[in-house]
Amino acid sequence: MTQRVFLALLLGLLWFALPMAARAQTCTVNTSSAVSFGNYDPTRVPPTDITGNVQVRCFIENVTVTVSLAPGGSNNFANRRMDGSSGDTLNYNLYKDAARSIVFGSGIGQTQTMTCTTGSNNSGCTGTWFIISTANFPIYGRIPAGQYVGIGTYQDDVPITVTF
């Protein structure tokens, strides 16, 4: 019994002695609150703005994480669009800043990715560290006002790539 406890303690100490790169990084991604515009009113001025979030949770602190977004169904970062059940399209875009001036994308053209460190508040991200280390990546969405489209459901699929 004493040998097992000693062996377990020894293995635990060796685990913490390993450099961070030698440890397996176990992270999960939560996109449940990524982006949802809700109901759109074309007569509403100013534009319809929302804020979403992608959360990365790791079991190790200080993991560098990069999030990038694809252009979506329009295949165009500058003019993302949602296709509607009515056959109409609704223009929108996703941004990495609250001013909605930097398009959140893959780094191609005028778009930028976002890199953060879990457990830290940096680069526009927020993070916490308590047993599990998190990084929260904000996504700011905007639908320009004055788009008169048919009633229906509008959606676009934007793949999110998370690298750590």
TrEMBL record:
Residues 1-24 form the signal peptide. It holds the Pfam family SCPU. Coiled coil: none annotated. Residues 21-161 form the Spore coat protein U/FanG domain. It comes from the Bacteria. Keywords: Signal. Transmembrane segments: none annotated. PANTHER family: EXPORTED PROTEIN, PROTEIN U-RELATED. This is Putative secreted pili protein.
